[in-house]
Structures are given as structure tokens and as C-alpha cells.
Amino acid sequence: MESIVETVVLVAISVLGAAFARRLGFIAPLVLLVGGLALSYVPGIPEVHLEPELVLIGILPPLLYVAALQTNLVAFRRALRPILLLAVGLVLLSSFVIGLVMHALLPDVPFAACVALGAIVAPPDAVSATAIARRIGLPRRMVTILEGESLLNDATALVTVRIAVSALSGAAVGFWEITGQVALKAGVGVLLGLVLAVGAAWLHKRITDPLLDDAVSLLTPFVVVIIAEELHSSSVVAVVVAGLYLGHRIPYLLSATSRLQMDAVWKLVNFLLEGVVFLLVGLQLRELIENIETDMATTIRVTLIVFVVLVAVRFVWMYPATYLARLIPHIRANEERPPIAVPTVLAWAGMRGVVTLAAALTLPPSADVVGGDYPRDLFVFVAFAIIVLTLLLQGMTLPALSRRLGVSEDTSTEDALAEANVQHAASRAARERLEAHADGAPGSVVDRLRALTDSRSNGAWERLGNQQMETPSAAYGRLRREMITAERHVFKIARNEGRISEEVLNRAQRELDLEESQLTRSDD
Questions:
Q1: Among 261, 340, 402, 422, which has the highest number of CB atoms less than 10 A from its own CB?
Q2: Is the dihedral of CA 4, 284, 293, 307 positive or negative?
Q3: Of 515, 516, 511, 522, which Cα lies nearest the Cα of 455?
Q4: Three-state SS letters, 484-514
């Protein structure tokens, strides 16, 4: 009972923290992390002990899966080269550079342990970086690169951590072995993710009950990660590939009701999971600080040096990765040369999060290390501190930096024009289908459907007009919403007076709610 109460309290606090963050205009992970740290000093707050399996199996897979579901696969493929340069090349470089720096700072610590720390802090987070990127209006290609990097770099980092931990246990590994293992596990993960995604798609295609669709979707990331772990492949790559495939196929697999319901379910799961995990990071920081055996001066010095080197390596990598590739004629002909502000903002968008947390918790006890002791508590603290520092410093200053450098993109007019053109074609196809099947239908019904098609087409073009004036579609939405409110009131009075049952009220309210949800487009 006590654990249930603690879980409810944590979820409630994370919800309140997220609401507070939205009201202030801050990113929720930052507010929850700082709030968790403050709460850890409140008397009576229980100590938190996160298990690595909980994060790796219970929290990370659904977060990655829902992020992959929402990623544009076409844009992802077009940006695959810069994504892989960051997700693989930069992570491996950061791991070894941090390893060399840490070994120089702490010569008695095994080099493998230092590389493990480098891999732990190397991958940026999928949640915080893209949340900020979308909010501040970064160009879509930049958002796609950040999304793709944060989806794939986890695999590189976690495989590198595992190989480094194996070396700590006495296994002999080198650079090429690490690279080969990363490639092998990632390749098997890709194949496994595709196979399991095709299986999930087969189930979705044959399911007609939205609740069963939701259940299959919720189970998919956990089934994928469990099977991938059993086969010793990259579970992160498998989950991401499955999410990318199914996200691209969802319009063909699910009914309208299933899509609406599944979207709401995943939004709730994502909201709760990411809120709780950043709150737990903050709550655990106090215990980490108290358990460090290394002196405070060394702890602060090591933490700041790791942070500075980590940021510097990302900047050093970003500019050559952006511009040297364009010396190749094929790439230069197909990709415009971006202004220097673009790689600068991408380099600064390196906030760490869930993967760094999970990987740090997998570090073995010092007693299991062969060939020398290492300060595990210090390493775990450094990893947690990097999460805090990157969220605080980079997360809070990234919007100002992007504004200062003029890296933003207003696609509202372009999107409205593209939507209007496609909607015009869709309306024409709808009218042709209507005429082909209208035989025998009442004329009033056919006329009503023609008017509905014209209204949808006109509404798309209206969004290109003067935003200061109320369009006909907006007026319709405003007035129809008032009418729906009056209808709801009548049904509720009838239920209260016993003239209709609760079932009748619920059925009527559902129809009115669905209609009102469609009216929100009139206000955009």
C-alpha cells in the first residue's frame, strides 16, 4: 500500500509540475528536475532508488516508441546522413575523448571505466531537445536531425557502455571491436524491429475494436525490447525502427476511431512517463551528493571539465560534419549550404536525459572491477549533474540563442497553401466518389454532402486570408459551438429529471463531443 501511495504522489507532483511549467512557458523536464531536487530536502519525502531495468525496460522503450511514431519517415530518410554522423560518429568520438580526459584527471581509474562514463553522457535526450526545438520554431530539417539523432544515438551509447563494462570485468576489447559490435547489434536490431513491426501491422490490419488496437500498440514497444534483449541485439534500434515503420503505416492500418483514441492514449503515457522520470532524477540527486566519497573540490572540477569537454566536442564535430560533406558534388548539388548559425544552434541543442540516467545506473559496483578500483558514486553523480547542467544552461538559453542568430522558420503560410491545394484535390475526389454512388439517395442528402465538401475546401483556402478578420468557417465554428452547449444543457436537464437514462446521455454527449472536436479547425 505504501508503494502505491508513493507512486500516486509522484505522478500527482509531476502533473502539477508540468502544469506549472506550461503556465510559465518553461520546458517541463527542467521544472520537474529542479522541483525534484528541492523536494528531496523536504522532511518526510521518501528516498528514491531507481533500478536500471525499470528505466531501460519500463520507461525508455515507450518514450522512444512514441517519439518514433510521431517522426516523419520521409524527412528522416532525407536527413539520414547527418543523423548517422551525430548518432554514431559523435557518440563514439565523445565517448573516447571523455574517456581520455577522465583518465588524465584520474590516472588510477581504469580507462574502460572512463570510456563508459563518456558513453553515458554522450547521447542527447529525445524528449527535451525536440520539445524546445518545436516550441521555438526551428526549421523542420533541424528538428528532424535532432529527433533522428536522439532516437538512434541511444543504441550507440548503450552498446558502448556495455562493451566498456565488459572490459571492466576483464574482457579485452579495442576500438574496432567496439565499432564492430555497435554495427552488428544495430543491424540485428533493424531487422528485428522490421519483422516485429510487420507482425504488429498485421494485427492492427485485422483488429476492428479500438480498445484492442490500443492494447496492441501499448504492448508493442515492450514486446520488441524484451525479444531484442533476449537475442542480444540493440533493443533501442529495434524499438525505434518498429515505431518509424508503424508510424508511417498507421493511416493505412487503423480506423478513424482507433487513430483518435490511440493518439490520446500515447499522449497521456508520454506525458506521465517523461514527467515522472525527470522528477525522479531530481529526487535522487540529494542522495547521490551525500554518498560521494570523493572530495567536493575534485567532484566539482571533474564535473565541470566533463561538461565543457562534452560541449566542445559537439561543436568541434558539428562544423566539419556540416560543411566538409558538401565538398562532395552529389551532396552539394542536392543540399543547400546552411548558414553557420544552423550548426551553431544544433551544437548547443545537446540536452541530456533519460538514456544518460539509465546508462549511469548500469555501472557495476567497484568490487566487480578487474585491474583497479573506480569511484562509481562519482561517475553516477557526474552523469546526473550533466543532465542538470545541460537542461539548465543549454535548455534555458537555446531559445534566446536561436532568436539571436535568426534561426527560425515560419511555415504557417506555406503549410496552409500546401494543405489548401491537397484539400482541393481531396474534395474533388470526394465529389467524384459521391456522384458515382449517389444513385437512389435522397437529393437533400446529396446536396448536404456536396455543401460539406465545398465547406472543407473553402475552409482550407480561408486560412490563407486575413488573420484579423473572422472567416465564414470561424463564424460557423463559433456559432455551432454555442448551439452544442445549449443542446448539452437540455440533455443534462433531461437526465437529472429522469426522462432519459445515463446511457442515452453518454451517447448524445459523445456525438456532440466529436462534432465539437472537429470545430477546433475553424479556430486555427
A1: 402
A2: positive
A3: 522
A4: HHHHHHHHHHHHHCCCCCHHHHHHHHHHHHH
- Helix, strand or coil, per DSSP, at residue 17: helix
Residue type, 388: V
* Alpha-carbon span 423 to 145, nearest angstrom: 29
The per-residue pLDDT for range 76-109, each reduced to its tens digit, is: 888 888 999 999 899 999 999 999 999 999 888 8
Chain centroid to Cα 143, Å, comes to: 11
- Give the pLDDT band of residue 469 (cuts 50, 70, 90): low
C-alpha cell at 346: 544544433
Provide Rg for the chain, Cα atoms: 26
Q: Is the pTM of this model over 0.85?
A: no
| Number of helical H runs and strand E runs in the chain | 24, 0
Percentage of residues of the chain with pLDDT beyond 70: 86
Looking up cell 526549421, which residue turns up?
139
pLDDT in tens, 191-250: 999 999 999 999 999 888 888 999 999 999 999 999 998 888 888 889 999 999 999 888
d(CA 226, CA 228): 5
- The grid coordinates of residue 401 equal 540563442
For residues 366-391, give the mean pLDDT: 80
DSSP 8-state secondary structure symbol assigned to residue 326:
G
Task: Name the CA dihedral angle for 186, 386, 362, 34, rounded to a multiple of 10 degrees.
Answer: -120
Q: Which three cell numbers stand for residue 368?
A: 566487480
* Residue 203 φ/ψ, nearest 5 degrees: -65, -45
Given a contact cutoff of 8 angstroms between Cβ atoms, the answer to whether 516 and 481 are in contact is yes
Grid coordinates of 268: 497521456
CB 359 within 8 A of CB 383: yes
